[in-house]
User: Fold this.
Amino acid sequence: MLAFVISSYVNLLVLFWCLDRFEKLGPNNPPEKRGRLKVAIWVLTTALNLALAWRVSDVVSWALVVAAWSMAAFVAVVGFYVFFICKDQTK
Assistant:
């Protein structure tokens, strides 16, 4: 339990740091840097989401376990689609 709490807090801190750096990127920065930060943000978000689903699955019934893991997988797939497949629509 302690490892879960510590890893979740560290994950959130690194996620917020990456989000802050991503928001501060200007148009002069190379697209590779933006891409690396997108990957880091997606991985950290997905890891946190799956860790929470894992912890929830220890205390709820099997039907809610299926729902929790399904939602976690859906969020991971949609996040991947939005971050990497959709083209940026801002102009």
